[in-house]
Batch of 4 targets.
Target 1
Amino acid sequence: MKREHFIRLVEEVLDSIPTEFRQRIHNLAVLVEDRPRPPKRPLRHAAHIGRTKPRLLLGVFEGVPTTQRSVFDFSSGPNRIILYQKNIEAICRNEAEIRREVRQTVLHELGHYFGMDEAKLKEV
């Protein structure tokens, strides 16, 4: 899928977010990259222990969740949600699945932006 089309899918998801949530989003950039950059040193994640092949990372939230911010914090640039287009495409068979996965990934990372951890997001 061409990057421009993928970005339009992301924009559609962001535009569909209810106004009461959109109004609470501040200082957040949503970016699309092909794949995550390799870490400078190996990372150990509990989710990967005992697996022969780790799951693909589809997106990530980088920043300080709204529940942990203080009026005394100095901004160090925008918080970021990064979607990994090639990883999303790798687990999907067609455009409809890509569209669903983009929506699910954007909403999942927005959950982190709003302060939800993995356990809480699994309940939703």
Target 2
Amino acid sequence: MESLSLLIIYTLLVVSIPAGTLIVSWVLGQRHQSKAMDDPYESGIVVTDSARLRFPARFYLVAMFFVIFDLEVIFIFAWAIAFRELGWAGYIAVFIFVMVLAVVLLYEWRTGALDFGPQGKKIIKAFKKLKSA
């Protein structure tokens, strides 16, 4: 019975803190309306262009980089902690995992995803164009 009362108190706290924050912000907040305030995601800033953007394919290649260089650290770190308990089966599993990541990295390298910046001639050409404008 005691644990149920603690759960009820915890639930009341979890609900009352965000509700209290919303009530205080409504009481203390400003009360003005403008055309820009009715636009979603703009928060009073006048809309200048469409929010519909097309992402280039390079964006998805960078997302694959995130998986290769950041997310696998979590898995390899967990494997390293439990290295002795996992034995050879764990070693083979992490080896296969690293090989799959190496294949993805090789794919990105071959598709040119590692070429992030423009070549030097393009930079000079763009600089001259900006300077003359």
Target 3
Amino acid sequence: MSADPIFAPLRFRNLEVPNRILRSNISGRFDNYNGTGTQARINWEESFARGGVGAVISSYCPVHLRGRILPGYATIDHDNRIPFWRAVGEAVHRHGSHYILQLSHSGRQQDVAGVENRGLKALSSTSKTESFHGFECEAMSKQQIAEVVDCFAAGARRAREAGLDGVELHGANGYLITQFLSSAINDRKDEYGGSLANRARFLLEIVGAIRTEVGDDFHLQLKISAIEHNDAVFPWEKKGNTLPDSIEICRLAERAGVDAIHVSTGSMFPHPLNPAGGLPPDVARDTYDTMLSSGIYTFRNYLLARWKPLRPIFNFLWNHSAKGLEIEGANLPAARAIRDAVSVPVLCTGGFQTASLIREAIEDGSVDGVTIARPLIANRDLVRTFAAGEDRAARPCTYCNRCLVNVIENPLGCYDLSRYEGNAEAMMSEIMSVYEPSGFEPAPT
């Protein structure tokens, strides 16, 4: 029998990962309000390394406080953050896994700005209000663009100084880099808007600045929404970037110095196609109120989730574009097209939790590796399950998205009670396990 391709090393230009499964970027509000890290974050990241993933891609890590999506996420905006990220990396490395820090900036997609940003409009490529939540923003000046480019470069330097294995630019799912790349969002009239080459300028300047800061021998990958589907909720909106657009962006990024492409989809987060599987209105009723002051349309959305007679409207707006979608591997055709167009390895996210499907995708050349988030939250030992010869976990992820809707104000974890046979105590015990050990030991009495 030939060796299992899932467990073949994945070689990048500057990094080798021991298998083809990476934990995708996902996390909760485990850290301090001011962006300093906690033991809970270390426990969270280490749990996936212990489960056998080849690498962990961090959650959204802001390069500046003005670019965070929520308070309670550790940042990389100051040199005093380096010791914490070093501790995270060391915990992951203990299990033979690698750690890639995702450098991010929210742009206008800011769920809860926090007190430090009170009174400030979010920065973006545009001054257009975001259409789903109604996040208001202002188009960045050239000076602000240059400052944010420097923030990304400084974040990469700090990641390297922390001993981490690489960085990923979050250029997908509606965050700031997407807001520049997107033909639906970017309405600038200067050299950062208009043509695809102009819309890609911000990204390419970031890549260039990172390479100047850390050199050519540090791993750098790009996450991109291969197809934006910007009209998925409101069909009268522009569709946004197409697959051919993204292929050209990936080619430009490769020439600029990117070592890998990470394929996603969607022009915002959450998006009906990312993460596919629905947006449970009963959970949104309990958590979305946290965002009521964040956008001018948030009260409308809250009412659609809060009042049962309005939920059919909520469900239709969110689910109509994903009707009939096969969730697992939905991004593979786009990933294959990008892989055919570039010479660097291509990763793909999208609900993966079946070994045979992952194996086939690697063998047929669709991808070089896959990234997994929700199914790993449901089953931290999924990789070990595959290694034992099983095709799927005994209790697979149901794609209910209760994990992601809870995370606005609750700890991240699997909230699908059916997976615990109705045992709420067992469910909560698993969710809260991320807080142990606490990192604080009381003095003996």
Target 4
Amino acid sequence: MRKTVISHAAVACATALLASSATYLALAQSPPAAGAGVRQTELFKKTMDDVLGRVASVRRIERDPGNGSGPHRHPGSHTIGYVLEGTYEVKVGDGPLQKLGPGETFYEAPGALHAVSRNGSSTQAVKYLVIQISDPTKPQTVPE
């Protein structure tokens, strides 16, 4: 039990540190060249040997106006999202459709259905961070 509590505490501390670092990095970088659809920039990736070999990663996602992805799941990942700019619409599991703006967050438990993931604006891009603590033995994303 104590080992589980320590592991969870380590994951929480790592996530907080990653979120702070990733926000700084995302805001300090200039945006990538314009293009259609969605762009991902990996900002950080590290295997955490002391936390059951989990992989911590931080990605910046940019979605063009109206762009979204189909329903999917992340079987082995705790996923935390943080909106940097624009409006992001998200629906996880049986939860309500959320319209998130800058500074707002969302969470997906491993295996939860990510039913809606889209830019909520028809005129502005949305930029958000995705912070994941993942089991590398499970698929990253599985479409529904």
